Amino acid sequence: MWRRAASALSVLLLVAGAVQGGRGGWIYAKAELAQILLHHSWERTLAGEGRVRPWPWADAWPVARLVIPGLDDIVVLEGASGRNLAFAPGHLDGTARPGGDGTCVIAGHRDTHFAFLEGLAPGDAIGLEDADGALHRFRVTAAAVVDEHETGAIAGGESPTLILVTCWPFDLLVTGGPLRYVVWAEDVTR
Q: Quick check: helix, strand or coil at residue 32?
């Protein structure tokens, strides 16, 4: 009887582990598939269509494309809601349009699209393509960990600035928390 119980418990644990592993893998698969669909929408945006939804039920559209040397480029959605961030980085409402004057803030998840932020250092290059197809070149000037309530960290100025934000620490197994990793970059195109 003890062996049957141990076997049943082993099978139950294996199934539970497979389910949890599948759920974790789904997050990455969804992020990758979304980028494929977003790249198609981005091409249509560059061709002159406005607010091209990447899939029929989407309530957001691509507004920019991040170009990071040595990595695949990443299409950015309008709006930084939790729903949007599950698929792509999002442009924070109320900040400058990507490529415009002022401060443009883009947020993304630390474990999918914005995992690369951990490796950025001052002087590194970032490209940002706007909806008109213009590529703006930025240089990283600083990076820091801040509390999510320190809104001054993303306060805007008049000069074109790009701020990338994600959760911190990068290797935390539990999501959420009050700390954010912020990367500041200045426009060197002009």
A: helix
Q: What pLDDT was estimated at residue 1?
A: 67
User: Hey, which residues does 142 pair with through a beta bridge?
Assistant: 184
Amino acid at 104: C
Tell me how many degrees the CA angle 149-157-131 measures, rounded to the nearest 5.
Answer: 95
Which tokens hold the place of 137?
């070149």
The 10s digit of each residue's pLDDT in 142-174 is 999 999 888 877 776 778 999 999 999 988 777
Q: What pLDDT digit, counting tens, does each position of 92-134 carry? A: 999 999 989 999 999 999 988 999 999 999 999 999 999 999 9
DSSP readout, 112-137?
TTTGGGGG--TT-EEEEE-TTSPEEE
CATH superfamily of domain region 2-187: Sortase (2.40.260.10)
Buried b or exposed e, range 117-127, using 16+ CB within 10 angstroms: beebeeebebb
Largest CA distance in the chain: 77
Name the H helices within the chain.
2-46, 82-85
pLDDT of 23 higher than 80: no
Handedness of CA 134, 85, 80, 92 (dihedral sign): negative
Helix (H, G, I), strand (E, B) or coil at 186: strand
* Dist CA 185 CA 187 (whole Å): 7
